[in-house]
What we know:
Blueprint: H1 8-11, E1 24-30, E2 33-39, E3 73-81, H2 87-95, E4 113-118, E5 122-128, H3 139-154, E6 157-163, H4 170-174, E7 188-193, H5 201-212, E8 219-222, H6 231-241, H7 259-274, E9 284-291, E10 299-307, H8 310-317, H9 322-339, E11 343-351, H10 359-364
Parallel strand pairs: 3-5, 3-6, 6-7, 7-8, 10-11
Antiparallel strand pairs: 1-2, 4-5, 9-10
Helix pairs in contact: 7-9
Amino acid sequence: xxxxxxxRAQLQHTRSSAxxxxxxxxxxxxxxxxxxxxSAKEEDDDEDDDxxxxxxxxxxxxxxxxxxxxxxxxxxxxxVGRPNAGKSTLLNKILGTKLSIVTKKxxxxxxxxxxxxxxxxxxxxxxxxxxVMRSAFNKLDETMLKSxxxxxxxxxxxxxxxxxxxxxxxxxxxxxxxxxxxIGKVPTAVCxxxxxxxxDVQRIKELMKYFRQVEGVSEVIPISALNDTGVKEVxxxxxxxxxxxxxxxxxxxxxxxxxxxxxxxxxxEKIFELYSQEVPYCSSxxxxxxxxxxxxxxxxxxxTIYVERQSQVGIVVGEDGAAMKKLSTExxxxxxVFLERxxxxxxxxxxxxGWRSNDKSLTEFGLEDPNKTSNPxxxx
Length: 380
């Protein structure tokens, strides 16, 4: 067998590299040291008798998660609602930072975005889900709805966000939003959002009364996520419903997703803001490389925008590349704010016909796994 020694730090390095150890591994621990044994194929165990022990690296340190109190609480909180109800805005306000992209166009969120809110006595793992559509039009829509159902099933409590400014449709938006047996299965709160836009106070009272009568709903909270009104009440309610348990993540964690995922989301947000009609919905962004450089050099980011038709490539690029230049500039500014360092952003556009209705394309673009780091491979 061929033996390969890999340090713990190397094994955990996934930040900017898409490479993985593809050989079968067996971890051996001796006297606080770690060795990783890799084999390209299975051979008779008898051959191991004459082989020398694997070379090991010295212990490089590391701390376990601190011991928590017996009353420490933790759990998953799913945030669900119709498109454009304000779910992502609520997540960002709860976390105190912009983790999920927000635009005025519906169906901006495609992935389940995970955010972590921790203090000494609790840890809340928030799941911002795609907007629940009344019907699916393609494989992408189906994947997004599947993500919502999966998040609801794993949640310890549920926050349903309703657009209270949806005139007389707020009640209708709630109908068939989730399966009847889901509501109330875990503690469920309805957040009537955008109350700052409702001029008639009586209308807010009507909505509060209506949702309090819904079976399974344990709390109704009027909020304005954009103005940070009522957000503290939402957090307090959710914390009070979390079961006793240890932290799932280190207290310093804000999210489990890699940096390149958020970079791609920022670029996609700018596409929603700068382009109209079908282009934002037909676009997917993949960050092929995020390379950190030693200052004063800027980090290098290479990204590809995929669209469904060749004609859309020209729309994204624009006359003499003007539209693409503006997109790159706007995206770079926000990326630098998010990463807190300078970047050089290099982008290109390609067409991938029918990707929204192709299972393999959805998988390669990471729609089923937002933590995917290997570059898309469309070979059949």
